[in-house]
Amino acid sequence: MSSIRRERRTVDPALSDPERLYVITGDPDGSERAALDLVTMVVSKSQPTPTVQPEQAVILRLCQAPLSVAEISAYLSLPFSVVTSLLTDLLATELIESRAPIIRATLPDRSLLEAVMHGLQKL
Predict the structure, then answer these.
(1) What secondary structure, in 3-state letters, does the chain show?
(2) 40 lies in some domain
(3) Does pTM top 0.85 for this prediction?
(4) Which InterPro entries does the UniProt entry name for this protein (predicted)?
(5) What tens-digit pLDDT sequence spans the chain (123 residues)?
């Protein structure tokens, strides 16, 4: 029987460091955050300016095409709460735009189905 040894993934200490996350958010008092959900779509309105944080510049580049907050969080390998804080700052400076996702009806309207059925029967 051969023994296959799996290597453990090591977590980069710089990414899991709570102090680093605190510095990124710069939010000591827990001020108002935008009402963002995991599925909220975000799109950038302009290119990164020299005054934005590096993480915010990455968000602006990523969001040339609409992305959900969950996707942004995954790409940056940052917790949702940190990404929400970064996005709130970008929304306040009007560098991004956010929209709730479009929810389509699961079932078509019954009257539409009946009209299609009657139209097909007349053929």
Answers:
(1) CCCCCCCCCCCCHHHHCHHHHHHHHCCCCCCCCCCCCCCCEEEECCCCCCCCCHHHHHHHHHCCCCEEHHHHHHHHCCCHHHHHHHHHHHHHCCCEEEECCCCCCCCCCHHHHHHHHHHHHHC
(2) yes
(3) no
(4) DUF742 (IPR007995)
(5) 555 565 555 545 545 555 566 566 665 555 666 678 898 999 999 888 888 888 889 999 999 999 999 999 999 888 888 889 889 889 988 999 998 877 776 777 888 889 999 999 998
